[in-house]
Amino acid sequence: MTTQLSHGTELRNKVLEGVNTLADYVATTLGPKGQNVLIHQKDRNPFVTKDGVTVARNVNFEDPHMNAGAQVVKQVSSMTNAEAGDGTTTSTVLAREILNQADKYINTGTSPIEIKRGLEQCLQTALSNISDIASPISSADDVEHIATISANNDSVIGKLVATAVDRVGKNGSITIEAARSLDTTLDLVEGFRFASGFAAAAFVTDERRSVCRYEQPIFLITDSKIEQVNDILPSLEIAARENRPFIIVADEIEGQALAALIMNSMRGTMKVAAVKAPKYGEERRAIMSDLALTTGAKFFQQSMGDKITNISLSDFGSANSIEISKVETTVVDGEGDYEKVEER
Cys-Cys link to 294, which of 199, 289, 327, 334 (CB 3.0-4.6 A)? Predict the structure, then answer.
């Protein structure tokens, strides 16, 4: 493949062309009068969406410089989605405008470094002003109002979301599943969530939401660093025999072991995912212990002389479902002892 090089004004123009073209498509979904976008991916059924980040993910260009500009704005949109869960289209529109205005100043001779410094100062002022005018959510009615708007003014979904938020509390977790009937329902189940995501994007099963989701998974939980395929071969054999998705939560998983899991996932040979353990030190150990209790798994600890090569079916944990994003993991209805978790 031939390397294409560009710099200066020529490069900026191409990058901005990619940014503006992407933003034009995404911006059509903005606000209460936003339009739907029909997306058709190869070998998949077409679908309609009004979600800015979903539209952005599906816009690509053959020109590498245009594509580079588009990828930068996609990162902005994805980061907003991961942090706030909303405002992806607004982020794209703001990013486009900032880049275009910066280009105008550069063309008049302003130093890009000075523009960067000015933007950093403006950011602090903007954050301060937003904080001053922000209206904290103070009631279930506020939640319902916001949810209804986000659901394209569907009051049924708005009320359901408000009820869900009220029932799980501030630190609870809400997941969405496709219904097997025409009814939209709410189920309250025990679960466990921690701030660490998948070890590789190859484990994603839902491209639109950039998450890995499995039903009825089994878990291997260990504080070991896993590098060799032989370390996880017994676990893979058991998971294959049980015909269930296999989730590894470990201090580190890399090298041949990670490569083998990625290969299995991409080929569709097995449903697998690897998650890096959250936090560090004693806090990590405590979270891993809670996860083991929640799922009913044995916590394989190096300090106790545990070896994952000696694993048996009874050592695995299990749950009704799991959802893994780039930044967090949610285990729903683990088949462990939640009372022991509360006692801890």
Answer: 334
Residues facing residue 212 across a β-bridge? 324
The contacts of residue 337 (CB under 8 Å, 6+ apart) are 293, 296
Domain at 8-133, CATH from 3.20.20.140, 1.10.560.10, 3.20.20.220, 1.10.10.10? 1.10.560.10
Which two tokens mark 243?
A: 């015909």
For the four alpha carbons of 274, 279, 285 and 288, in that order, the dihedral sign comes to negative
Q: Closest Cα to residue 56, out of 42, 35, 76?
A: 76
Q: Which element (helix H / strand E) includes 47?
A: strand 47-49
Residue pLDDT, tens place only, 267-322: 989 999 999 999 888 889 999 999 999 999 999 998 899 999 999 999 999 999 99
Name the residue among 114, 76, 110 with its Cα closest to residue 95.
Answer: 76
What does the mean pLDDT of the chain come to?
A: 88
Nearby residues of 35 by Cβ (< 8 Å), 6 or more positions away? 28, 29, 50
d(CA 182, CA 231): 45
Determine the pLDDT at residue 43. 73
pTM above threshold 0.85: no
User: Are residues 196 and 325 in contact, defined by beta-carbon separation less than 8 angstroms?
Assistant: no
Where the chain has pLDDT below 50, the residues are none
pLDDT at 6: 66
CATH classification code of 191-343: 3.50.7.10
Q: Count the helices and strands in the chain (H runs, E runs).
A: 11, 12
User: Which residues contact residue 300 at a Cβ distance below 8 angstroms, ignoring those fewer than 6 apart?
Assistant: 220, 221, 222, 223, 224, 306, 307, 308, 311, 315
Task: Classify residue 132 as exposed, middle or buried by CB count within 10 Å of its CB (0-12, 13-18, 19+).
Answer: exposed
